[in-house]
Protein 1
Amino acid sequence: MPETVVNTETVAEVQPRRSEWKRFRRVFFQRKVAIFALIIICIMIFTAVFAPWLAPYDPNEQNLSNSMAPPSREHLLGTDRLGIDTFSRLIWGARTALIVGFATAFISAAIGTALGMIAGYFGGVISTVIMRFMDALMGFPMIVLALLLAGVLGSGMQNIIIALTVASVPGYVRLMYGMTLSVKENDYILAQRSIGSSSARTIWKHIFPNALQPMIVMLTSALGGIIMAESGLSFLGVGITAPDVAWGSMVADGFKYLQTYPILSFAPGVCIMLVVFSFNILGDSLRDALDPRLRGTL
Amino acid sequence: MGRLLEVKDLKTYFKTDDGIVKAVDGVSFYIDEQEIVGVVGESGCGKTVTQLSVMQLINRPGRIVGGEIIFEGKNLLEYEQHGPEMRSIRGGKIAMIFQEPMTSLNPVLTLNQQISESLMLHLKMSKEEARKRAIELLGLVGIPSPEERIDDYPHQFSGGMRQRVMIAMGMACNPKILIADEPTTALDVTTQAQLLELMKSMVEQFKSSLVIVTHNLGVVARYAQRIYIMYAGKVVEEGKCKDIFKNPRHPYTVGLLNSVPRLDVEGERLIPIEGLPPNLTQMPPTCAFLPRCPYATEQCRTQPMPELRPVEGEGHKIRCYVDIAEVDNVTVKK
């Protein structure tokens, strides 16, 4: 009997790091739908990166003599009112969607994390000012706030990124504020302070890595929402403008011909749906795989 | 042996919804160089808060409202809590070990990162030097094959091993004082003894002083040279270890000693201290121990809280009107 006991102990002590990673992979890849989402996202990223080489035509090259052409071998998804190849526009649209999505998500996550951790760590007046301001921002639905800002700043990719960033920062601030409040109560934070760590060092080296996990999940899930919002703004005409191509504005362009020539709106619509769906699924699966309390759900 | 740290009339209060909690209310104590001092008392009597006050690690709603903390001739309370002077003292001159080894190490960093941190911070070592020193320290505290284990994460260590790591972290910068806040409470008895021996040999080797905060009289009896007994935010008895154990003068100390189980006396009954410690928000003007004191006299009920007064024995003081030595029919187990 004693031998068995010793055995289990050594096993438990030797390889916990690897088994954690294994468990993550197992939970994550168990889901067919997660793999599907991952594949879609990989294809989208590949398309976005290599758009200039993949697209058969220039996405702004007009050919009025060949407008509203049905799908053919030259034009896989046909052409629009100005004779521009729809398939090429879709490919370039992926680039726009992902640039806006990733830029907004990372910038707002960085700002939100910094503000949230500062508010949570220092508390008092600092946290009151930051958190009440964020509460005020949160009072508006994200899309309404982004619409307002985009209207004020004007359209264009850069302004859309700014507008969407401002609209999504409060969520990150709240999340990291809560995480910091709970992590900083741990004894190891007190222990760190007792060896003379400065506040900045404690926040960055000790609180941040321990509060990171839910933020990764939130960031992934938020990507879908951001791309959705960008498409919405573009659809409404306050978003991306030429020469950049956006799926949202393509849907709006094709909207007029919905009954006679639906593919113009449907093709970009399906792309938006697929990307948003994939990012949401990916976020959900990441949460399930990373959070030990939810093991085996979905 | 010179005086290293002297705390005079320290007061740390916590503002709560129920009123002001006087967690530490006029505590004075001192530590000489290379001395081992014990601070004993039951839960919530202010032992830990006293030590955290010395480090200025009191968080809101707590505040140090009065007193002096003289360390190496300077009053630490004149320094800004988050200022550079105080930061260089924390970890550099005064280090602390906490009660819970399981949660006192950051789970996402390797031991190397955590031990090296204070070395790089206070001794301005380079990464490689700090790593070397960290390995040495791990060896000193008795972690086998420290070169391999230095890159492990805390969850790969048991509780006793983690507390050893905490000691290594505490002693990293060769501090003048090591404050051990209930260092063995969360560990099992065999490990306790090993760790106390380890701490004793470490402070002897590094020529540091050690403060052991505990509710376990057995722990201090063996290691401490002097003892402070605390009750409800005040020191109620202080003196040399042997004086206090041979000749306890305060009724609370007597109660504590009577409630320690002993192996060498057969068939004895433990005598608990009746009642509970007072609510720190509603302290009576009289002696705080009065409601639980079996020797209380008329004087105790009418007079305010007594001051510390010297009694027989070098540096032996008690905060009591009654002197147990002069009361008959007192059972003090010896």
Note: The first helix of chain B runs from residue 47 to 55.
Protein 2
Amino acid sequence: MKLLKALGLGLLASSLAMGGAAAQERTVKIATEGAYAPWNFTGAGGKLEGFEIDLANDLCGRMKVKCEIVAQDWDGIIPALQAKKYDAIMAGMNITDKRLETISFSRPYASGLHGWGAMKDSPLAKLAGEGRRFSLDKDADAAKAMIEQWKPLLKGKTIGVQTATVNSQFLEKYLKDTITIREYKTTEQHDLDLSAGRVDAIFAAHSSLKATTEKPEFKDMVIAGGGVSGDVLGRGVAVGLRKDDAELKAMFDKAVQAAIADGTVQKLTQQWFKVDMTPQS
Amino acid sequence: MDFAFMRDAFLTLMAGVPLTLNLALTSIVFGAIFAMLLAVMRMSGLKILDWPAQAYVFVFRGTPLLVQIFLIYYGLGQFRPTLQEWGLWTFFREPFWCAVLALTLNTAAYGSEIIRGGLQSVPHNQVEAARACGMSGFLLFRRVIFPIAVRQALPAYGSEIILMVKATSLASIITMMEVTGLAAKLISQTFRAVEVFIVAGLIYLVLNFIITRIIMAIEWWLSPHLRRPPAVEPRLEAAHV
């Protein structure tokens, strides 16, 4: 009897110990797209690289969890999160009202502008507002006036945009009747079609456009017109999470805040985007 | 399961049916013509015709259609100046024609093997009988070999046609908004993958159901010798005499 009791206690103790270890070593599976340089992309060796990969590893260190980063196609990235294929999304995803209906977000870890990419010799390279930034939230009138200025040049043109992004929503909302929208699965694909001349311009995040212009084969591409933010373009890039996963959201919130506070986000955005994209709160 | 949403999804996806059918029909028609040519090359007995056809079939059956579509659309897009020089850019600029080209080249490879199988299955004694009646050359082909070969090849070719209708879904990766393209877009807007894909699957099922019925009707029409002879009504009047 004594022996049995001892055995039982021993089992209990060991299972407790294992439980404790499991809580410390929780594995968080994070999905990224792997085709959105420099946010996240598949490097030469087939390994995932980019700003979000570095940031994810930093955040996981802060949360004291083990992280596994997987690549997932953009257009299925939210349904697969819902289906619990992974626990979080870090894929340059902006917080929008539409997405908030389905998933929740951590606090934003980066923010940026969106705008046009065109070839140097195209008339669209001269879109208005170059080098300036417009917020549809803070100064909606100025931003809308600029969009009106764009319309005559854009009339009847074919514009490439990645499907299911804040960029495609922006075009649908503000320029639907002016342009023909052609939707691509990845930004890399609309870049290729821009240089092939199948589309007249592309609309994307400035960070992504800038990375493209730095590739030698895209040296004739320029960022055209003013940069826009706000409204359908979202309230910053954040970690996408399931609504019922409040615990993980609290962990990411805390880790992101810490990474912003100690300058890690500034350092990483400087490194990957050449500009500071720390979100202003 | 939200049936009101599925009804809306059905209406959205139906908008892609004309493009799906357009892609499928155009490539099936061009593909069949090309397949016929390849089959004749294969059976010509001339190495100079046989070998290129064999190599072609090997390459296009041996590589995924997805890769072919990518190479034709994005790959050839890199050679725009050359294509413009040759006056081919107006064709390759359009995603529709790139998709049709890839589907056509692909189905021609599979189709040529099916047709070759059909041609080879024509019984030799029937050809000899036709020759004994004085038929030769094109007349023999048109009156005897071709009809029998088509009858033999039709069930397999029917499967190929169904595969083609389904293969059009790959055109969505080069911005063609056919049924699958619209489904992917709707999912990314609503995040309801299960409902949307069920509706998309049902649409393909209905399309292919109609196609199988048409092929069955053609088979029936081509095979009078397999039909049950019409039942002869017994003459009842005689009993009253």
Note: Residues 36 and 187 of chain A are 7 Å apart (CA to CA).
